[in-house]
Design brief:
Blueprint (H helix, E strand, L loop, with lengths): L3 H18 L4 H15 L6 H8 L12 H15 L14 H5 L6 H15 L12 H11 L6 H13 L9 H12 L5
Length: 189
């Protein structure tokens, strides 16, 4: 999810530069820009998607120059970091009383905010850096993990069942795969 907004933003920027430098493809570029705006316009303002983009180490704050957009995502992150427990690896299990009164303590928010600021200041852009910031990692996993949908898989197995009949029981796996792809993608063949 975190790759969507930076990719669309970069694509829109490249199309704008191409529109300024091109003379013959302006209607095509305009159509592409309006199509992107129509399809992804609302998503580009979604705080959850902006926060997911900020929590991908490759992008953080560098994918846009719009400070208002970044602030929207950072506010979303900070509000959700308040709800996350501080995960410190060397902590010992506490009693039920400590767990009961844990929402009252303010150390949770301060520790998570420190982790966020350290994450944003860190120059490393690999995903491994998230392991150093457990609260940021937890929120990043929540925001950047899409929910699986089974409809496409069910359609694939249903179509494969229609192709793999008793008359075709000796079909080679490569031929079955080709027939399945041809059956599911008729507009491409």
């Amino acid at each position: 999810m975190g790759w969507l907004i930076p990719t669309i933003t970069l694509l829109k920027t490249k199309l704008q530069h191409l529109r300024l430098s091109s003379k013959c493809c302006v209607p095509l570029i305009d159509a592409l820009q309006s199509g992107l705006q129509k399809r992804f316009g609302e998503m580009l303002k979604d705080p959850e998607l902006i926060a997911a983009s900020i929590l991908v180490p490759k992008f953080r704050r560098c994918w846009t120059t719009d400070e208002g957009l970044l602030q929207l995502g950072l506010d979303y992150i900070k509000s959700h970091l308040k709800e996350l427990p501080v995960t410190v690896s060397d902590s010992t299990p506490s009693s039920e009383e400590d767990d009961f009164f844990s929402p009252i303590k303010q150390g949770n928010l301060q520790e998570n905010t420190k982790q966020l600021e350290s994450y944003l200041a860190c120059p490393n852009d690999t995903m491994e850096i998230l392991k150093s910031f457990p609260a940021v990692l937890n929120l990043s996993l929540q925001l950047n993990t899409p929910l699986p949908a089974s409809a496409a898989c069910e359609r694939l197995f249903s179509t494969a069942g229609l192709i793999f009949r008793p008359k075709r029981a000796r079909i080679h796996s490569q031929n079955l795969e080709n027939m399945l792809l041809l059956k599911l993608n008729p507009k491409f063949w």
